[in-house]
Write a structure and sequence with these properties.
328 residues, 31 strands, 52% strand, mainly beta, five-stranded antiparallel β-sheet
């Protein structure tokens, strides 16, 4: 599949940690756009598999798509409304779709994990994470409208609820990795309005640690860095949480020169520690491990998931335009 080159024009911004920066040196790179196989597919999340292929969900087409780094795509039908996707144990790929979980092999064989008592994905955010080991975690709601995180065992497909959140709390995203375990970014609210958000560390039996995100009431996507730190997309800022000390740093996003607005709704971290983020404003951003900010213009649209493959580029999903934009 051929991709269309959008722009090689970039804007850079740099500044001290936690402060908006000034215009900086312009890095290299080109954004290439690939249309999804189905029109109006509403692609959502994207993940990198160990073999380097990308997998993304097509919410509107009931499918998951394998994409090579060069842009070739193969479609695999699953159940209605696929949302979350993650590379799991044994070179498998896990997809959350409506009331079902699906497991795909590298060759694309699809297995539906059925459980009549399962409550995953009945409403709202439907995120999924693999922290390593033999379990995959997924968000959803139960039959009473309460938010839950469920744990699926890769070998047997058995699914158990890890935590049922109290009224007024809802998990917005999950992140997992060998160094950080699995965490949920949780928004909290009452009838009077929003409360500060939380980061909950999850174990097989429930919440094992908690970090308060003072000043944040709407956390977005989250990613685990190679160091074990957590990065959270928080609108006009990025948050870095150090689980060992439960300390949170806030980094305000400087504006790119091509836009008067920038936001972060999804985030990914490269193996070198660079933090990538995207919002709904036509900008792909990077905060380097040294604290410098760079921006690349994207086609205007509603951005979804984000994935970084150090050897092939940064991949972001445009759900409204049904495209995958790749920075190479």
């Amino acid at each position: 599949m051929l991709g269309a080159t959008v722009s090689a024009l970039l804007a850079g911004a740099t500044g001290p940690a936690g402060a908006a920066g000034s215009a900086g040196a312009t890095p290299g790179g080109t954004v290439v756009v690939y249309p999804t196989p189905a029109r109006h597919a509403e692609p959502g999340n994207i993940a990198v598999a160990p073999d380097g292929d990308l997998w993304f969900t097509e919410f509107g087409a009931g499918a998951v798509v394998r994409m090579t780094p060069a842009g070739a795509m193969t479609t695999f039908k699953v159940g209605p409304y696929p949302s979350g996707v993650v590379a799991g144990p044994g070179r498998s790929v896990w997809v959350s779709a409506g009331l079902n979980l699906y497991v795909l092999t590298g060759s694309g064989q699809v297995r539906d994990i059925g459980d009549p008592d399962r409550t995953v994905g009945t409403a709202g955010p439907d995120d999924i994470a693999w922290p390593g080991g033999g379990s995959v975690y997924v968000t959803g709601t139960d039959g009473r409208g309460r938010w839950v995180v469920d744990r699926a065992l890769a070998k047997t497909g058995a699914i158990r609820t890890v935590v049922t959140f109290p009224p007024g709390q809802a998990p917005q995203s999950l992140a997992g990795g060998p160094r950080c375990g699995v965490w949920a970014a949780v928004s909290a609210f009452t009838s009077r309005g929003p409360l500060p958000s939380l980061l909950d560390r999850l174990g097989p039996s429930g919440v094992t640690a908690q970090i308060h995100l003072d000043g944040s009431d709407a956390p977005g996507g989250m990613a685990c860095a190679p160091s074990g730190a957590l990065w959270v997309a928080d609108g006009a800022a990025l948050l870095r949480a150090a689980p060992e000390g439960r300390q949170v740093q806030r980094f305000e996003l400087p504006l790119p020169h091509f836009s008067s607005f920038v936001s972060a709704t999804a985030v990914a971290v490269s193996s070198s520690g660079d933090v990538w983020f995207v919002g709904n404003d036509g900008a792909l951003g990077e905060r380097t491990a040294g604290g410098r900010f760079h921006y690349w213009p994207l086609p205007a649209g509603a951005s979804g998931g984000l994935a970084v493959d150090g050897g092939h580029g940064t991949f972001t999903v445009d759900s409204s335009r049904s495209e995958i934009a790749v920075l190479r």
